[in-house]
Prior knowledge:
Blueprint: E1 6-9, E2 13-16, E3 20-21, H1 27-30, E4 34-36, E5 39-49, H2 51-64, E6 68-72, E7 79-84, E8 88-91, E9 100-111, H3 115-124
Parallel strand pairs: 3-6
Antiparallel strand pairs: 1-2, 4-5, 5-9, 6-7, 7-9, 8-9
Amino acid sequence: MALPGTLVxxxxxxxxxxxxxxxHLLNRVLAEVRPADGRGDCYVAEVDLSEDELRALNLFEAxxxxxxxxxxxxxxxxxxxxxxxxxxxxxxxxxxxxxxxxRISFTGVQTMLPLKARxxxxxxx
Length: 125
C-alpha cells in the first residue's frame, strides 16, 4: 500500500514526489552516459565541459545532493532516476574545447514507470 504523496516505482520502490530534473543546459552531457561495466545500477560518462556547463553541473549537484535525479537514458529514451555522485575533475579537456574534463556518475539507477502505469499502480495500492 502506497503512502499518500508517494509513487510506487519499478522494483517496488517507493519514491518521494520530489525528484530533481536534469538541467536542460546539460542535456548534451547525457549523450555520453552509459551503464558502467558490470554494474547495471551505475551509469557513468567522462565529458568535456564548457565554463557554463561546469558551473551548471556544480550548482545542480549541490542542490540535488542526497535527492533523486531524473534523466533520460540516451540509448533507450527511457525515463530513469538515480543519485548523482559528486562530479570528479579529470583535468584538461581532450579535444581542447571547453575548460575541463569531468567524470559524471549516477548510482542506484532505476527505471521509471510511464505516468499511466504509475497511476494504475496507485489505484491498486
